[in-house]
Structure formats: C-alpha cells, structure tokens
Design brief:
The complex is a heterotrimer of chains A (186), B (541) and C (343).
Chain A: H1 2-25, H2 33-40, H3 54-62, H4 75-86, E1 103-107, H5 117-121, E2 127-128, E3 136-137, E4 157-161, H6 179-185
Antiparallel strand pairs in A: 1-4, 2-3
Chain B: E1 27-28, E2 34-38, E3 48-49, E4 56-57, E5 62-65, E6 74-75, E7 80-89, E8 97-105, H1 124-132, H2 146-149, E9 159-164, H3 173-180, H4 182-196, E10 200-206, H5 210-219, E11 224-229, H6 238-246, E12 261-265, H7 266-278, E13 284-291, E14 297-302, H8 307-313, E15 323-326, E16 333-334, E17 348-352, H9 371-375, H10 382-390, H11 394-399, H12 410-414, H13 421-477, H14 485-507, H15 518-539
Parallel strand pairs in B: 1-14, 9-10, 9-12, 10-11, 13-17
Antiparallel strand pairs in B: 2-8, 3-5, 4-7, 5-6, 7-8, 13-14, 15-16, 15-17
Helix pairs in contact in B: 3-5, 4-7, 10-13
Chain C: H1 13-35, H2 38-61, H3 65-69, H4 73-84, H5 91-107, H6 119-130, H7 132-135, E1 138-139, H8 151-160, H9 167-170, E2 171-172, H10 175-185, H11 189-193, H12 206-222, H13 229-248, H14 256-260, H15 263-272, H16 283-303, H17 310-327
The chains are: A mainly alpha (186), B alpha/beta (541), C mainly alpha (343).
Chain lengths: 186, 541, 343
C-alpha cells in the first residue's frame, strides 16, 4: 500500500517535471487569439460593430464581451470564419446591421473648404490635404468606413459604390437547372 | 529531327471543323471608316491614354502607354481623328463596356515614322527597350504582355517553344499564318531566341496541319526543330505543349521560365518580327471568321475594327445565324454585342447557329462516373471540385486544387450528365480571387491603421512636450494671455468658409428647375415630398 | 447562361445505362440456355417492379419525372438484381428486394448519383438475410433436373406459386451451396467435385454464364464505359486470396479457378464493383476498393455463414469508398509527390 503510493507519487513527480520542462523548452509561439480574430476582420476600422476599430472588437470577442455577428463589412463569410475559429455556432448578422455594397469616399472638390476635419477622422490616413487646401481621398487605401462623412462641416464627402468593371467582374454562379433543384423550386 | 515526344494525360478529339476556313488564303480587310481601340487588350492594367479628343493621329501612333509593369501600349490602327475616349462594348465574357479610343479614319492611312532595326546589331537590352512600347502581347488568346515574357528571369532559359498547335476546333488563323508566312514567323522566333538567350528552339504543330508543318520545316534553319505532335485537345495549352515536347511539368504556382522554358504563339512571333524588322507596332492581326458566314476564312484585320464589320467582309451571316463566339467553342465566350471591336486577343469569331451549336441539354445529377477525371489534362478530380464549388465551399474546392484548373473544358465536354462543370469552376475561382483581393486590402488597411494610431500617439506626445515648453516659457516671462486671439480668428474664418461652401452648394443645385410647366413643377414637388419623407424615415429609428 | 464549352460529346446517362444493359445480354442468354427460361420471367418481373417503384419515388419526391424515369438507371439496378437472385421465386420476393433497392437504397439517399450503396446489392442482401430459404433454390442445369419449367410454367411459378410442379423437380443446390455445406460436413473434396453440378472450371453451366459476363465486361471495357482497374484488381484479388487459402488448407478450400468462374464473381468484377456512384473513382482508389472487395468475398465464402460473399464484400467496401477516394487523389499536374516536376 505504502509502496504503491510512493511509486505513484514518484511517477507523478517525474512526469510533472518532464511536462514542465517540455512546456518551457518546446514552447511553440502561437498567435494569440486576438491576432487570429483580428486577421479575420475586414480592417475597415468603421466602428459599425460598436467598437473603435477592428482590433478593439477582436479583443472584445476574445474576452467573450462581444458577439461574432456584429461586423457588416465582414459579411457572412467573416462570421463563418469566426465561428470556425472560436468553435461556436454560426449566426446571421446582428439585428439592424446590413451589409452594404463596397464603396469609396469621394470629396466634391468644389465644396471642400480644406478644414482637415476628415483627415483627422480617417482611420487609415487615406485622405491627403492640408489646411485650406482641397483634400483628396486615395481610393486604393479607402476602406469605405464612412467615418469621414460626419465630421465634414460642408457635407462634401459622398460614398460612391464601386461599380463592376471588366477587371473586377466575377463569373456568376451557374444558374443552370440541375434537375431536382428545379423541381424543388417549382 | 529526332526530338523525343512525350504525352499528357486526358484530352479530347472533338470534331475539328478546320476545313471550313483553312482552304483560302489570308484576306486583308480594307480600311474601315471608324475604329474602336480598347485600352485594355492585354492581361494587366488598362493602358493610359496619351491622346485627346480632337487629336489627329497617324497609323502606328501610340494612343495609350502601359500603366505599370503588366500592361501594354495600344496604337492607332490607321490615320484619323480621335472622336471619343469613352466606354464602349468590348469582346469580354462579362459583356461590360470598357474604355476605348474611338478614331474616325481619314482614309489616308498615313503612317508615323517607323524605324526598322537590324536586330543582330543590338544587345538584348537595347532591343527590349525598343519593344516595350510596341504593344506586343501573346496572340494565342492569353494576351500577356510580351515584353515581360521576353525578360529572362533568374533561371536561364534553355528552351524556347513556338506554339503552333492550334488545338481548338474551328480556329485556323495560325495554320494559315504558318503556311503563308513561315519565314517571317521563324525570323520572329530567332529574335525571341536572341532576346532570351535560349539554346533550343522547338516548334510544336498538331498533325492535322501537315501543310503548315511542311512550310515551317522548309523555312526552318538547322537549329530549329519543327515537331509534329498528335492532334489531341488541349495540346496547344502552354503547359500541355511543354509536357508534350519536353516531358516536364511547370511546378504549381510557378511559371515555365522557372524551369527554363518560354512559350510563345506563332502569331506573336510574327508580330514581333514586324515590330523589329519593320518598326511597326501591333496594329493588326489575323482572325478566323467561320461558322454560319458566307465566306469563312482568315482575315487580316486592323485592331479596332468592329466585329460586325469584319463579318460583313466575310460575306455576312447566313440565314439561321444566332450569335457569335469569340475564340474556339471549348474555351471561347459568347459575344454580347457584335459592335465590339477586334482586339489583340480575338483570334477567331464563330457565327453560331442552333444546328452547329445545339442548346445545352438539361443537366442530370453527377454519377461520379469519372469520365471527367479521365479527360482532365492536369489530372484533377473534376467531380469533387464540382461538388464543393456547387456548395460554395471554396476552401474545400481549393483543397482539391481548383486553382490548377486550366478551364480547358474537357470535363464539361465529356460529362454524360451534361453538367456545366467549368462554369462552376470559373465561378469558384473568381470568388477565390476576389477573396484574396479583399484579404490584401484588409492587410493594407491594418498596416495603415496601425501607423495611424502610432502617428496620433506621437503627435500627442509632441504636443504635450510643446505645451509643456510653452507653459514653462510663459511662467518665466510672467505674462499669461487670458484668451488666445489666434484661436478666435481661426474659428471665425472657419465659419465664414462653411457659409461660403453652403452657398456654393446651393448655387450648384439643379439649374434646370426654372421656367417649368405646371405639370413638371407638380412632378418636382411630388419628388421633393417623397425625398423628405424618405429622409425622415431614415432619421427616425 | 452557360459558358464554354459550347460543344458536348454525344453521351448521356441514358446511353451509358443502355450500354451496360447491352453488355448484360450475353450472360443473361447463357443463363437462359443452361438453366431454362426462368431468368427471362424474373427479369421482366423485376423490370416492371423497378419502374413502378422508381416512378412512385419520383412522384413522391416531386422530381422531374420524365427525365429521371427514362434515364435507365433503375433498369440496370433491376437487371443486376434479377441476375443475383434465383429465378422462379415468388413475385413478392422480387417486390420486397426491389422495394429496398429502389426506395430505400436509392431514393431515400437522394436518387440517381447520391446512393452510398449499390442498390441491387442492398436488395439482394435484404433478401438473403430475411428469406434465406427462397434464396438458395436455384434452378439446376437443364440436363440435370427432372423438369425444366417452360416460359408459361415459369410465369405460373412466379405468380401462382407451386402448382403441379414440385420445387425439387427443377431446383438444385448451387455449387457454392454444395461446397459450403458438404465441406463443413467433412465430406472429402474429391467426392464433392464428383457431383455433376460441378463442371470443368466451376459450376456446370454457371462457368459459361461467368464467361459471358466476362465477355460483356470486356465489351464495356473496350467501349471505355469502365476502366481496367476494378475488374483486374477484383479478379486478381479473388484469385490470389483463393490461391493462398487453397495452398494453406487444400482440403477445406476451393481453388482460384473455381472461384473466378462463379457467375457472381464475374458479375461483381465487371458490373457491380464498377458502379461509379457507390464505388471509388480515383484510379488507385479503384484498385484498393476492388482488391479489398475481392479479398473479403473469398474470406466470406470460405469462413462466413453465407455461401457467397460478393454482395456483402462490395457493400462493405461501399462504406469505405469516400474515405479511400480522399486518400488516393492522383498527383495533379505540377505538384510534387513522387512525380517528376520541373527540372
């Protein structure tokens, strides 16, 4: 009886030491959860989720303080990826949140007064300009977050939906009837 | 002559339909009155126009210059006046309009000064520099800018392959070109070899074109090997031709130059020869017009000629014509508008009829019969990819190597259930590409946002430091200003500017609302009322 | 709107099924020649039941009735089923078998192309488990039995049951049954083989039927309806397993030739294991699938409770088919894996 306890304790001790040693020496540096979540988010920094940017939202998700379905630009695909990563059920986009078509902000050059307020609002520094000089938005860098619309005192910024052109055009899902699908629809 | 011949898996023997158009010699199409030159006739970025509406341009004059590395210049096909630079229907599967330069020809066909080159005297570098603005692209259909492909990479190019396989049914433009202008084609190939420093020069021709092979053999020097390959679609795919002639595979995610091989279409070699030896940029190409037309054959067409006009030159459509295909029936696409012009990538126009191209039969479920896998030249399992592409499970489709699919259409062709497999792959591939683009955009946005936060932090610290310094200075001088007159002035200026802008905006309101008839006024009022309502709806939660 | 390719091969599911049925004709005729016209009756009865059940299923599912009823797949199922079960059994035997084959094995899983198991083999398995008695009464070779039922008598037997003809007058234990029961009973092999039910290679008459299945299978192969992988692997595996078992215990096991020329092995190798829907689709997958199926067939024949094991072995392998496929994907162009990629 005593021998058994001693042996078990000894085995436990040895294994514990081995595991502890392995933990220190074979540690695999892995992306923390926040980074993984942040990688899935679309980085528009638009704040539509209620957090000031994508990273704060990622942090909130990681701490279970926020739901995974609050990001409209990420769309269904984004929610699915988050659900996969976190091992939770997929859920549709939260109430009152609608995905919008992708757009970029455009400044009306005739109205802009060069107040620099939008420049301060832009989370990705996509607006170029200086005080009292006309501002221009770098379309390639614009995430379409709409954060520059509110601060503009003269409402000279407009969101322009990115229309489909020959370059961005995508092949459509074949709308060709496979038999039983038609039957089901009929 | 004893070039060993290898093989590729799968493939097809569809009805060839070459005899319709390969009997007659190439016909040069007379000048047209109006040319529509697309700015994007190549893979990569649209070219940047350098002419303006109203300019007079000469044949061969540069209309637009390359924008970025993967892009190509476009040139005026004849002399005339630029009447518009605007979106116009183009030959593209989307049917969308794209930017074009519209030229009204003056009929003089006056050329710019073209300087022929004795290429053997020039170093490859100097020659490449001359070629960069010539607008040369791959004329086999992929339209990749040639000057990029003529730049040797890190791996030494051992083998240059000239692609004269022309495996798609109906198309015969390369066949006729090789029969009639073999010497020029091979001179172009020699220039390519010079540029790339390739040791070996192989010409691959399918055995259904014995005349072309004979002409090329007769014109070929001792160090050019003309190899006749068995007729089997898609032997003309670059990767398949490489496999046929060398037995090598291009590793996934790499390009053929990484294994020391470069492939060009015979028509590209011909265009290169003209560009170097005559100094003429790419302004015309040979197009097969076939199918339901009166005089099927091959026509040398200035780029920018509307397709409907070229069809007229071929005797016009016969009764029963129902549409147009651009390219071959296996990889081509349905042309939306025959007003679209002939561009660099248009190698064939087939006028269709329900007899020649019967409507697609109704699809049945997949039975995993595996015929598609047996036909696939890249050894994919099309039925698995179809399953996942149909379910929009893109990751899984990618895991089955969807991205290695060359969209040759063999699987759809053999499918006994008539499933449009390639349509599903094209859909899934373009969705995957869009997803990658989004991912890259997100990456860029993240970097910029992080920098933005860093900048704010830095500015805050700088400001704090500055204020601290100022405060200490003031303390030292002993005078504390009660109010900052500078700030008040700025505020007043800002308000004035806002007011000006508001007025400007109002002034910019619709100008055509004066002098309205009562009914128009009523309509305007109704619209305004609706708009107000809508705005209210938006503001009230 | 459908994009390229704009031309298609003249092929269809229906054409494929017709070709399979054409390839089954020689074997069926051989069966009628050696065992009487009973097979014709059971074939007609099975075909009728199959069409009725298929139509019923399609109506219940609300599918495009016209295209699916005429795709011919259910007739192939019925034909294979009819060749697997004894002719001259009561009609309801066929009805029950096909009910399971068509409704359960095929349509409950989603119909054409969706069934994980071969429907005909499901029908057979249900019957041999539920009504083993009926499933062992095979008509004997016509020169060995007392009475050969004519076509009219065959109809009577199927629909009206045993009338004036005693079941013993026209049936005999099949060679596989004989082997199983007598070997188990300890009868020496030489004595068993002296029974006239055994022919030169395998069962009298049955060896010819097997040969005709082989012929039909080769026709399918020549017409590229099937690939060589499944039949070759299946037959090779059957031969190898039987050979090894015979070498280990010659007194208890039959040899490879006997097993190869039983009708069910040839039918299985060329017509059942080659079913693309329920089998493997990759080349290496087909080899593994059929190889294991052949092995299991002989193991069941030699050590199992049932005289034949082809149906069970194929059903067992059907379960594993998707798994095997997933691990036997061919090397794709340009991807390294043993292959020569690049210089």
């Amino acid at each position: 009886m005593i021998t058994a306890i001693v042996i078990m304790a000894a085995i436990g001790l040895v294994l514990g030491i081995v595991l502890g040693w392995a933990e220190v020496h074979f540690r695999v540096a892995e992306d923390p959860l926040v980074d993984k979540i942040d990688k899935i988010l679309p980085q528009t920094q638009c704040g539509q989720c209620g957090f000031p940017g994508c990273r704060p939202y990622a942090e909130a998700i990681a701490k279970h303080e926020a739901d995974i379905n609050l990001c409209p630009p990420g769309g269904e695909h984004g929610i699915r990826q988050l659900a996969d990563l976190l091992g939770v059920e997929f859920k549709p986009l939260g109430a009152g949140k609608e995905p919008k078509p992708k757009a970029v902000a455009v400044i009306d050059e005739n109205t802009c007064i060069g107040c620099t307020l939008c420049i301060q609002a832009c989370p990705v520094d996509a607006i170029i300009g200086a005080s009292k000089q006309m501002h221009v938005i770098v379309a390639d860098a614009c995430t379409g977050c709409e954060l520059c619309l509110a601060p503009c005192p003269v409402d000279c910024i407009e969101m322009q939906v990115i229309s489909e052109n020959v370059n961005s055009w995508k092949w459509r899902y074949p709308v060709f009837p496979i038999h039983h699908e038609v039957a089901r629809a009929a | 002559m004893n070039q060993p011949l290898f093989s590729f898996p799968g493939g097809l023997h569809p009805a060839e339909h070459k005899a319709e158009s390969n009997a007659a010699a190439i016909v040069t199409v007379p000048l047209s009155g109006r040319y529509v030159v697309p700015l994007r006739q190549h893979a990569g970025n649209s070219a940047k126009p350098v002419v303006h509406v109203g300019d007079r341009v000469l044949r061969g004059q540069t209309l637009a210059i390359p924008d970025g590395r993967i892009s190509a210049a476009v040139h005026a096909p004849t002399s005339g006046r630029v009447v518009a630079i605007e979106p116009h229907p183009v030959a593209h599967p989307s049917g969308l309009a794209d930017g074009c330069v519209v030229i009204e020809a003056d009929g003089l066909d006056e050329p710019v000064a073209m300087t022929p080159t004795t290429w053997r005297d020039l170093t490859p570098e100097a020659l490449r520099e001359r070629l960069a603005g010539m607008g040369l692209v791959g004329l086999g259909g992929a339209v990749f800018p040639s000057h990029v492909k003529l730049q040797p990479g890190q791996t030494r190019i051992e083998t240059l392959i000239l692609n004269g396989a022309e495996c798609e049914p109906w198309i015969t433009c390369d066949d006729r070109l090789m029969r009639e202008r073999a010497a020029e084609v091979l001179r172009g190939a020699e220039i390519m070899r010079h540029l790339l420093g390739a040791r070996e020069l192989l010409v691959g021709i399918e055995d259904n074109k014995p005349e072309a092979a004979a002409a090329m053999r007769a014109a070929a020097g001792p160090d050019i090997k003309v190899v006749v390959v068995p007729t089997r679609y898609p032997s003309g795919g670059a990767k398949q031709l490489i496999q046929l002639l060398t037995g090598l595979e291009v590793p996934a995610g790499k390009i053929s130059t990484d294994i020391g091989i470069q492939v060009f279409n015979v028509a590209t070699a011909y265009a290169l020869q003209r560009a170097v030896e005559l100094g003429e940029p790419l302004i015309s190409r040979i197009v097969t017009i076939t199918g339901q037309v009166a005089r099927p054959g091959n026509y040398e067409v200035r780029l920018g000629t509307p397709i409907e006009e070229v069809i007229q030159r071929a005797g016009g459509e016969l009764p029963g014509a129902s549409g147009h295909l651009v390219g071959g029936p296996l990889m081509g696409f349905d042309l939306d508008s025959p007003r679209a012009p002939v561009a660099k990538g248009v190698n064939c126009i087939i006028v269709t009829s329900p007899e020649l191209f019967p409507p697609h039969p109704t699809a049945m479920p997949c039975t995993r019969c595996g015929l598609c896998a047996q036909a696939c030249p890249v050894r994919l399992q099309p039925y698995e990819m179809y399953l996942y592409a149909k379910a929009k499970n893109l990751d899984k489709a990618k895991a089955y190597n969807l991205t290695d699919c060359i969209e040759c259409g063999c699987c759809s062709y053999v499918c006994p259930s008539h499933i449009p497999l390639v349509d599903y792959y094209r859909f899934a591939k373009s969705e995957l590409a869009a997803r990658d683009r989004d991912q890259q955009a997100a990456e860029l946005a993240r970097e910029r946002h992080e920098f933005h936060l860093l900048r704010l932090e830095r500015e805050k610290q700088e400001k704090a430091a500055r204020l601290g310094r100022k405060a200490s200075e003031r303390l030292e001088s002993g005078s504390v200003a009660p109010d900052d007159p500078e700030a008040a002035r700025k505020k007043a200026l800002l308000e004035a500017a806002i007011e000006r802008a508001r007025q400007a905006k109002e002034a910019a309101a619709p100008a055509n609302i004066d002098n309205l008839t009562p009914t128009q006024q009523a309509e305007v009022d109704a619209i305004e009322a609706r708009r107000k309502q809508a705005e209210q709806k938006e503001t009230t939660p | 709107m459908i994009g390229s390719p704009f031309v298609l091969e003249k092929n269809s599911v229906r054409l494929t099924m017709v070709k399979v049925m054409l390839a089954l004709i020689p074997g069926t005729l051989a069966h009628a020649w050696f065992f009487g016209p009973g097979i014709v009756v059971s074939l007609l009865v099975c075909g009728a039941f199959a069409i009725v059940f298929e139509g019923l299923a399609l109506l219940m599912r609300g599918c495009c009735f016209k295209n699916f009823i005429s795709d011919g797949s259910v007739l192939v199922t019925a034909w294979l089923f009819a060749l697997s079960v004894p002719p001259l059994a009561p009609w309801w035997i066929y009805a029950v078998g096909l009910l399971f084959a068509v409704l359960v094995a095929k349509h409950l899983y989603g119909g054409l192309g969706q069934n994980p198991f071969n429907p005909a083999m499901i029908g057979y398995a249900v019957l041999i488990i539920s009504f083993p008695n009926y499933m062992t009464h095979w008509p004997g070779p016509i020169h060995l039995v007392n009475h050969v039922p004519s076509l009219a008598e065959s109809f009577d037997l199927v629909f009206a049951g045993q009338g004036s003809i005693s079941i013993d007058a026209y049936t005999m234990a099949s060679p596989l049954d004989t082997v199983k029961t007598l070997l188990r009973a300890g009868v020496p092999k030489a004595d068993i083989l002296a029974n006239p039910v055994f022919g030169r290679l395998s069962g009298t008459g049955l060896e010819w039927v097997a040969g005709m299945y082989l012929l039909g299978g080769l026709l399918l192969l020549a017409n590229r309806q099937i690939t060589w992988h499944v039949p070759v692997a299946f037959l090779a595996s059957v031969a190898a397993t039987a050979g090894i078992l015979q070498a280990v215990d010659p007194a208890y096991n039959m040899g490879p030739v006997f097993h190869l020329f039983t009708a069910s092995v040839m039918l299985g190798a060329f017509f059942i294991a080659t079913d693309p829907v329920s089998g493997c689709s990759t080349p290496r997958g087909k080899l593994i699938f059929a190889g294991l199926a052949g092995f299991i067939s002989i193991i069941i024949r030699s050590y199992g409770g049932y005289p034949d094991g082809v149906a069970f072995s194929i059903l067992i392998m059907n379960v594993a088919a998707p798994f095997i496929d997933a691990y036997t994907q061919p090397r794709v162009y340009g991807h390294a894996r043993g292959g020569k990629v690049g210089r």
